[in-house]
Amino acid sequence: MRPTTTRMRLGVLATGLALGACSPGPLDAPLTGVARRDLGRLDALEQDLLDRADGEPGGRAARDPLDATSADDFVRLALERNPSLRAAEQHVLRLRERVPQASSLDDPRVTVTPIGDMAETAAGQVRVMTGVSQRLPYPGKLDQRGRVAEQDVAIAEQELERTRLSVIADTRRAYWSLYGTVRAMEITRRSRDLLDQLRGAAEAKYRAGTATQEQVLRASVELSGLDNELIELEQRRASAAGMLNSMVDRPVNAPVPNPAPIELSRFDARLADLLADAENSSPSIRAARERITRSLEQRRLARLDRFPDLTVSLSYNLVDDSGLSPVADGQDQWWLGFGVNVPIWADRLDAAEREATRGMLESAGRLADERNRVAFRVHDAFARVESQQHQAELLRDTIVPQARLAVEASLGGYRSGETDFLSIIDNWRKLLGSELMYQNTLSELERGFAELQQAVGRDLDRADTTEPREGPTPPTPEVQP
Q1: In 3D, which of 141, 193, 161, 172 has the Cα closest to residue 248?
Q2: Sign for the pseudo-dihedral over CA of 241, 247, 248, 249
Q3: What is the distance between the alpha carbons of residues 331 and 317, in angstroms, rounded to a whole number?
Q4: Among 24, 124, 428, 451, which has the minimal tally of Cβ within 10 Å of its Cβ?
Q5: Confidence of residue 24 (pLDDT cuts 50, 70, 90)
Q6: Residue 8 CB contacts under 8 Å (≥ 6 apart), including other chains
């Protein structure tokens, strides 16, 4: 037998080791050190996010050149760089780490009692009492806990998809807002050139005595109005470019190239087909279904809690080799024990099952609500896309050409003296308004199409879709006195 002092030292040492093994080491700094310690290698985007969280100015996206000219290019960059999407991806990965936690056994419990008045036995004085116990859940409980945690991951994955669709739609909306503003600026400048020619013609006629000063002043007033509109359009362009930069995680004041002109393309689809697609593709609907499944898994876990868990324990006592009994031999003591919890509190167990069932009903209500919301969003976006498409076709094929012909006819009449100056100004304003309305309708059509894709939950194909290319620029009519 070992001496008493040796056993006491061993007991104290065991206590120290047990406590020391449970003490976490100091965290590294900065954040990158913490992440690399726990996760190992970081990708470039993760490293960039941590560097910026540590206070470094700018970011990787701010240093990279902008490689984007179309809406699809900006969407690609947004899917690579957008911080909200990166956060949603990390949220999914974070919840996945909960699955092994939920499906693992609890830590074993170790007890060491080295100090105090110990029991005196015939074998000798008990000096150190030790024990270890492990709780073993009822068969199936750990797997069921893991399934509940996996459902949390499935819900988060649908939330990630919803964030992805939102980022795509917001990026496209910002791009087409920029597109509409740039086209409006081009049309306004072109119209200003025409009006400047009209003012020159009016001044020539005024000097020749065939026109009044009112005509010259009227043209000057209209020019000042266009200059004011250009100032407002510059502000709108800066705002749209800033929004687009923020979606791709660039400085808001970074330069953005002007979108190229596009031609009107048709979208042929049936509302019934889109509604059916949304039922299967919408992440909000799928997330609601996953919540129902999670409630069912939670109810199964609650039912398993009615069955007892087994606790296995092993105890070991160090006994001194000297004691009150003359025959003390210092024989150490050990024993194996078993225990179970007794789930007798029916109120608690019943309430847990009812809670899970209420959760299922709550999720079913949310599913019905999401179906209604998605159906309305699809219907509303589809109606707006159809209306804007018909309006754009009418403007392109009828209203704009007629307005341009009216301006040309009034210019010819003005040269021959058959048309007064106010008629030219009136026709010019109609042409300007119709051209602006056409480009604005094109912009709104593309924005509405982005919202329709977001509502359906997937990218939609277009019939007769043409690649963005330079559209025909109507010539500015020449004005001669």
Answers
A1: 172
A2: positive
A3: 9
A4: 24
A5: low
A6: 114, 127, 128
Q: Could you give the maximum distance between any two Cα atoms of the chain, in Å?
A: 144
Q: What share of the chain is helix, strand, coil (3-state, %, to 5)?
A: 65, 10, 25
Whether 126 contacts 318, CB under 8 Å = yes
**Residues whose CB falls within 8 Å of the CB of residue 320, separated by 6 or more in sequence, listed in order:** 4, 7, 124, 125, 126, 127, 328, 330
The residue that leads in pLDDT, 355 or 27, is: 355
Q: How many whole angstroms separate alpha carbon 305 and alpha carbon 355? A: 14
Q: Over range 365-392, report the average pLDDT.
A: 95
* Two tokens, residue 79: 């899917």
In angstroms, rounded to a whole number, what is the distance separating the alpha carbons of residues 357 and 299?
A: 7
CATH code reported for the domain at 71-101+155-283+370-481: 1.20.1600.10
Residue 472 CB burial class (10 angstroms; 0-12, 13-18, ≥19) = exposed
- Helix-helix angle 346-394:283-304, to 10 degrees: 170
Examine the pLDDT at 328 and tell me if it is beyond 70. Answer: no
Confidence of residue 471 (pLDDT cuts 50, 70, 90): very low
pTM greater than the 0.90 cutoff: no
DSSP at 123: T
The answer to whether 268 touches 463, Cβ cutoff 8 Å, is yes
Tally of helices (H runs) and strands (E runs) in the chain: 14, 5
Token pair recorded at residue 92: 């999914």
Tokens 């001044």 belong to residue: 203
Instruction: Map tokens 């590294």 to a residue.
Output: 28
Per domain, the residue ranges of the chain are 71-101+155-283+370-481
Average pLDDT, the chain: 83
Query: Which residue's structure tokens are 């990026």?
Result: 171
The three-class DSSP label of residue 131 is strand
Burial 9-20 (b: 16+ CB within 10 A, else e): ebbeeebeeeee
